[in-house]
Automatic annotation (TrEMBL):
The lineage of its organism: Bacteria, Bacillati, Bacillota, Bacilli, Bacillales. This is Flavin monoamine oxidase family protein. Residues 12-89, 109-361 form the Amine oxidase domain. Belongs to the flavin monoamine oxidase family. It comes from the Bacteria. InterPro entries: Amino_oxidase, FAD/NAD-bd_sf, Flavin_MAO. Gene3D superfamilies: FAD/NAD(P)-binding domain. PANTHER family: AMINE OXIDASE, AMINE OXIDASE [FLAVIN-CONTAINING] B. It comes from Scopulibacillus cellulosilyticus.
Length: 369
């Protein structure tokens, strides 16, 4: 190959693709619109209290008994893991004016929900260590991809200072949500209408979601015989889990039941006050003693969500590899969790899609695996 493979997106898929291509000696560059790597992986901490730990505002778990690609990669990168805390009773919150009900959840003893020590960001950081740092260009927003009659590809991107930069490419891996491709990247010649229709129908995983994490000095609910798991018909959080690190502080995180428009109208301060009120109702007055609270509304993240994503997620059946035909066949390759039909929405899906994209590129240039 004369020119590098351009990878659009420095999330898990993009970085995994870059790592695999680098290992095969294939030149590549990763262009990322954000000012950070990781995409929808986001592990945060309180800079004033780093001792409390890191907490995931994006994906949190993987299931090694089903998901071999991420399980093997975690072992390969020598990352530390621990199992999700599940001991104790769960709470059911069915009515606003009644206290929650305690009950025992029948647990599948074989199913392990596994978390990464230091958050999923530790996986992103470890992957980044496997590729030369200079091939990742942050704050580089791809705006146009041009294919000339000779089959040469040019990727045009806008830099943080507003200037445009052109990158020649032999192939392009689109490792970002398909709807972002449809909305923000211009193709010349245009993509086939059937392809546009397909990628617009693929909802962006997590794009309509928001997460809140409340951090405490210890997981006090465990002392009450509670697992931290809550199912609520009242809200604002409809599912709550123990998000504590494997040692030290305690934390609870939850997914919201209210739609994106309602969250936006209410505002972050009011939402977080409602969250704390709910946690106090569920876990008692000690839940007032929050040490830090984090909130991420993915629907307001322009690098994640488009307007179609504000509706509830329904089209699971539309996930899978988009049908690239015509002049763009073997020139652009889609990756990302939405393009994997079996594990869409999971970290496993992101990794499998990256490995499939690299397999296609390797076949194109006839490098023996």
């Amino acid at each position: 190959m004369n020119n590098p493979v351009i990878i659009v997106g420095a999330g898990l898929s993009g970085l995994r693709a870059a790592s695999l291509l680098t290992a095969q000696g294939v030149k590549c560059r990763v262009l990322e619109a954000r000012d950070r790597i990781g995409g929808r992986v986001l592990s945060t901490f309180d800079p004033n209290r780093p001792d409390l730990g890191k907490f995931d505002l994006g994906p949190t778990w993987f299931w090694p008994q089903y998901e071999s690609h991420i399980a093997n990669l975690v072992k390969e990168l020598k990352l530390e893991t621990f199992e999700q805390y599940k001991k104790g009773e769960i709470l059911l919150e069915r009515f606003q004016i009644k206290p929650p009900e305690r009950c025992v959840l029948k647990e599948n003893s074989d199913e392990k929900w596994v978390r990464l020590t230091g958050g999923v960001q530790s996986l992103i950081d470890a992957l980044a260590e496997t590729i030369p740092s200079e091939i990742v260009e942050l704050e580089t927003r791809v705006k146009k991809i041009h294919l000339n009659e000779a089959g040469d590809i040019t990727v045009e991107a806008e830099l943080s200072d507003g200037k445009m930069k052109k990158f020649p490419a032999d192939a392009v891996v689109l490792a970002l949500p398909p709807r972002l491709v449809a909305h923000y990247i211009e193709f010349s010649p245009s993509l086939p209408p059937s392809l546009i229709t397909d990628i617009v129908k693929k909802p962006t995983w997590m794009a309509g979601q928001a997460k809140a994490v409340a951090v405490y000095d210890r997981p006090f609910w465990r002392e009450l015989g509670l697992s931290g798991y809550v199912l609520s018909a009242v809200g604002p959080l409809e599912e709550i889990y123990d998000a504590s690190p494997n040692k030290g502080s305690g934390a609870l995180f939850g997914f919201f039941g209210m739609p994106p428009e309602a969250r936006k109208k209410m505002g972050q301060d009011k939402i977080l006050q409602l969250v704390l009120n709910q946690l106090v109702k569920l876990f008692g007055s000690e839940a007032k003693n929050v040490k830090a609270i984090f909130y991420k509304d993915w629907s307001s993240d322009s690098e994640t969500a488009v307007e179609e994503d504000f509706s509830p997620l329904k089209n699971y059946q539309s996930y899978g590899q988009p049908p690239v035909e015509g002049v763009w066949e073997k020139k652009i390759i889609f990756a990302g969790t939405e393009t994997n039909s079996q594990y869409s929405g999971h970290l496993e899906g992101a990794l499998q899609s990256a490995e499939q994209a690299v397999f296609e590129i390797i076949n194109l240039i006839n490098i023996p695996l």
